[in-house]
Amino acid sequence: MSNVSWEAPATGAAGGRGIIAHVGTFFVLLAFALLAFAHLGNATESEVPAAVPTDGKTVEVIISNFTFTPNELTIAPGTTVKWINHDDIPHLVAENALAFKSQALDTNDSFSFTFIKPGDVEYFCVLHPHMTGKITVKARLPVVDRAVATSGAYGFRFEPGRFNHLFDPTTGACACLYRSMTTVADTATAADALSTAFSLMPRDRIQSVMRSAGIQMVYLIDAVGTPSRLEA
Q: What is the CATH number of domain 144-231?
C-alpha cells in the first residue's frame, strides 16, 4: 500500500486568520501601486523617446580668445545654435564627423545650425583643433494631469531585423512609418491604445482621429529620424 498523506483545509479561526492575512497583503500591495500611479500622474515633466521640436528658439555661442562660450550647452530639439566670432582671426566651426561645417568666420561673422535629433554633439574649430565644444540635445515633454504612452517598432521583434510586433490588420505587414509614436490623452487607456493605432496611420489620418477622439497632442519620429508634433 502506498503512503498517501492528506491535510484538511484550515477551518474556523485559523482559516479565517489565513484569509485575512492574504487579503491584507493584497490591499497593502494595491495601496503601494495606487501611490506610485498618483505620483506619476502628478508629474509636471516627463522624458520621452520622441523628440519634441521647440518654437524656433535661437541661442548664441560666442567665439572669443580661442574659446567657445558657453563651452557646453543643453538645448531642446528644434533649437538653433548661432556661433559668432569675436576674435580678430578666422575660425571654422565643424561637428566632429562633419555633420555640419561653417565657412571660415571672420570677425563678427556668424554660422547657425538647427539641431533636431536628441543626443550629444561634439564640435571643434578646424583651424584651431584645440578649440572644442559640446551640445546636448535633450527632449522633454511637459505633461500636467494627462496620460502619456509611447509605441515603437523597437520593442519585441520576430527574427530581429525583419519583423516587429506591430502588425497592420488590413495588410498583415509590420509597421514601418515611424520609429516612435507618443500620444498625450486624458486617460491612460486612450493614450496606450491610440499610440499603437497611430503607428499604423499616415499623418492626415492621425489628425482626423485626434479631433474625433479628443487627443490633444501626438509626438512622433518618422522612419528617417525626423521628429515632429501634431495637434488636434
A: 3.10.520.10
